[in-house]
Amino acid sequence: xxxxxxxLLLASLYPFLTGIYTGLTNKKLYLPDxxxxxxxxxxxxxxxxxxxxxLTNTLVYTVLAVLIQLPLGMGIAL
Length: 78
Fold this sequence. Notes:
Blueprint: H1 2-23, H2 40-46, H3 49-77
């Protein structure tokens, strides 16, 4: 049981750490060099109105989907 868990952990760890590295640098996929910029990418993202619109749309869609599908699924299951 331990070996599959370790394989899953190692397979998940690399993309997770790569994502953190990419988020904290100005890494471009087509350039080999990257410069550490800290939370600059996230500050830029938070200052973009389109991000907040997309986040609001996602949250509304999620809440509506759960509020419709959960009672419907429970009702069908009964």
